[in-house]
Amino acid sequence: MVATTTRPRSPARLPRFDRVERALHWANAVLFAVLMGTAAILYVGSLSALVGRRELVRHIHVIAGLVLPVPILAALAGRWRRSLWVDFRRLNRWDDDDRRWLRSFGRDPFVRLGKFNPGQKLNAAFTAGAIVVMLGTGSIMHWFHYFPVDWRTGATFVHDWLAIALFVVITGHVGSALADPDALLGMVRGWVPARWARERRPRWHDELSDSE
Fold first, then answer.
1. Among 191, 193, 203, 179, residue whose Cα is nearest residue 116
2. Cβ(205)–Cβ(12) under 8 Å?
3. Alpha helices in 76-117 (DSSP H)
4. How many CA atoms lie within 13 A of 27 on its CB side?
5. Buried b vs exposed e over 48-83: b needs ≥16 C-beta within 10 Å?
6. Cα end-to-end distance, the chain, whole Å
7. Cα 20 to Cα 120: distance, rounded to the nearest angstrom
């Protein structure tokens, strides 16, 4: 009798983000939504007149800004940080495929991407830096009496223009997520279809297959 071996059937879906990563993402999403909404009310005259209670809106904006780093620190504080820390390293690692993807504006069919595409890596780096800068400039604007006039003027300029840049970047991020429902599943339910991973993130798909 000849023994036969069969390869295990490939799973229909693959784990992409754990609960900690998803909780961090949605906590940041809520805080950014509050910050962008309150900023719009504070800076757009018609919205400010419609909503009223400008001082309350300003306090909400300040509190949301001060709380913004808290979810990141909480996610990194315990043993549950392992997957998040691994993904942070992935976001900071660039290779030849990433550079080819950028040069071709994502149109090179032979690029084999890992878990994150270069656009996501740039977005993560920009957002992380923006959080630090916005926290610093916002603190100068709020506790202005501790700082000289030129610091306050510079902080206001940087804060306002960086807020506009963040609005554009976040709007683009949301649009990209809505345009790719399979990828969005990764941040909503924690998994993506294996088919999507093979087509859109082949190197990451192979990494998961090799680890099984």
1. 203
2. no
3. 82-91, 96-103
4. 16
5. eeebeeeeebeebbbebbeebeebeeebeeeeebeb
6. 29
7. 19
Instruction: Read off the tokens for 74.
Output: 């909480």
Q: Within 10 Å of residue 148's Cβ, how many Cβ atoms?
A: 10
Take residue 210 and report the two structure tokens written for it.
Answer: 């090799």
Do residues 72 and 94 make contact, with C-beta atoms less than 8 angstroms apart?
no
Residue 180 CA to residue 158 CA, distance in Å, equals 33
pLDDT tens digits, residue range 155-172? 999 999 999 999 999 999
Residues 6+ apart with CB under 8 A from 165: 130
CATH architecture label of 15-211: Up-down Bundle (1.20)
Task: State pTM to two decimals.
Answer: 0.86
